[in-house]
Design brief:
The protein is α+β, with helices and mostly antiparallel strands. The protein has a domain of 42 residues. Helix content is 13%, strand content 16%. It contains two helices and three strands; from the N terminus they run E-E-H-E-H. Strands 2-1-3 form a three-stranded antiparallel sheet. A hairpin with a 5-residue loop joins strand 1 and strand 2.
């Protein structure tokens, strides 16, 4: 992970998204908005780019 990326979490109950620094403060891991203890990592806003192989269709048949 690069240093510029932020780790975002999302509350399962209220759906609010917040940064990692707001999650781990206080007495436990809870949503800073509603106090619900179940969180998940939020999906990134951008899609991942997956490069395909440069084999031709004919070469792919042999593998």
């Amino acid at each position: 992970m690069s240093t510029g990326q932020r780790v975002l979490y999302q509350c399962v109950k209220c759906g609010k998204v917040f940064e990692k620094e707001r999650v781990f403060k206080g007495t436990g891991i809870r949503c800073p908005f509603c106090g619900f203890p179940v969180l998940r990592k939020a999906k990134p806003e951008t899609a991942k780019l997956i490069k395909t192989s440069k084999l031709s269709e004919e070469q792919k048949l042999f593998f």
